[in-house]
Amino acid sequence: MDTEQTEQTDQTDRRTEELRAAERRLQAAQLAGDADTLDTLLDDRLVFTGPDGSLSGKGDDLALHRSGEQRLTRVEEEELAVLVVDGTGVSWFLGTVAGTFKGQEFSARVRYTRTWVRTAASGWRVVAAHVTPV
């Protein structure tokens, strides 16, 4: 492998670890109900597809956390895979989430697929996400 290929591989490895860390910061912020941290990790253009197929945006997600309508009491990661291609990343989370949503308790094993974009100014931010029960 030549020097340029080695540098590209090192950069991809570094970005992969950065993305893995961003995904885990997102999980921790969800569990803590930390809307300020979520605000930094969610892109303004976010489109989230819920388990019922409904679409929502960043403002909707932040409002749920700030109002307390959604509170997570458990985020348990079983598996986390990430892929980085240039300034785009994808993460696949498999695990159990539990808490309350609009007064109803829930617990579910789910798969989240998140698409992330990376900029020098803001780092990794989620631009699209989908969750489905498994």
Query: Measured on Cα atoms, how large is the radius of gyration?
Result: 16 Å
Give the helices and strands as they follow along the chain: HHEEHEEEE
Number of helices: 3
Task: Give the strand order of the largest sheet, numbering strands 1, 2, ... along the chain.
Answer: 2-1-6-5-4-3
CATH class label:
Alpha Beta
Shape: elongated
Task: Report the strand count.
Answer: 6
Intertermini distance = 41 Å
Largest sheet, described in full?
6 strands, mixed
CATH T-level topology: Nuclear Transport Factor 2, Chain: A
Approximately what portion of the residues adopt beta-strand conformation?
over 45%
In terms of per-residue confidence, which ranges show pLDDT below 50 for 5 or more consecutive residues?
A: none
**What is the correct CATH architecture?**
Roll
- What percent of residues adopt helix (DSSP H or I)? 25-40%
Summed up, what is this model?
Helices cover 35% and strands 51% of the residues. The protein contains 3 helices and 6 strands. Helix 1 (3-32) runs antiparallel to helix 2 (35-41).
List the helices and strands and how they pair.
Elements: H1 3-32, H2 35-41, E1 42-49, E2 55-57, H3 58-67, E3 70-85, E4 88-101, E5 104-119, E6 123-133
Parallel strand pairs: 1-6
Antiparallel strand pairs: 1-2, 3-4, 4-5, 5-6
Helix pairs in contact: 1-2, 2-3
Give an account of the 3D structure.
The chain is an alpha+beta fold and 134 residues long. The chain has one domain (3-133): Nuclear Transport Factor 2, Chain: A (Roll). 35% of the residues lie in helices and 51% in strands. It has three helices and six strands; from the N terminus they run ααββαββββ. The chain has helices at residues 3-32, 35-41, 58-67; strands at residues 42-49, 55-57, 70-85, 88-101, 104-119, 123-133. A six-stranded mixed beta sheet has the order 2-1-6-5-4-3. A hairpin with a 2-residue loop joins strand 4 (88-101) and strand 5 (104-119). Helix 2 packs antiparallel against helix 3. It is elongated and about 60 Å long. The chain starts with a helix and ends with a strand. The mean pLDDT is 93.
